[in-house]
Specification:
Elements (H helix, E strand, L loop, with lengths): L2 H21 L5 H42 L6
Helix pairs in contact: 1-2
Amino acid sequence: MTTGRIILSIAAGVAAGAILGVLFAPNKGVDTRKKIVQKKDDAVDSLNEMIDRVTGKLEDVKKQAARMVTNGMAKV
């Protein structure tokens, strides 16, 4: 399993748990819907941050690989 899939699975599990927690809380429907939207927004923001970090690391690896090829440290 790749790192991206693991991160996505964890994020999906956290989001599902948060939604279930809100659904079973004793609040009015309007309040519950607001909380669900807020949790969804938080989960999306968190996932976007994770994607940005992974993308940044991927770019670093690409740059390092290009330097290695340029310096003759890796065979193409």
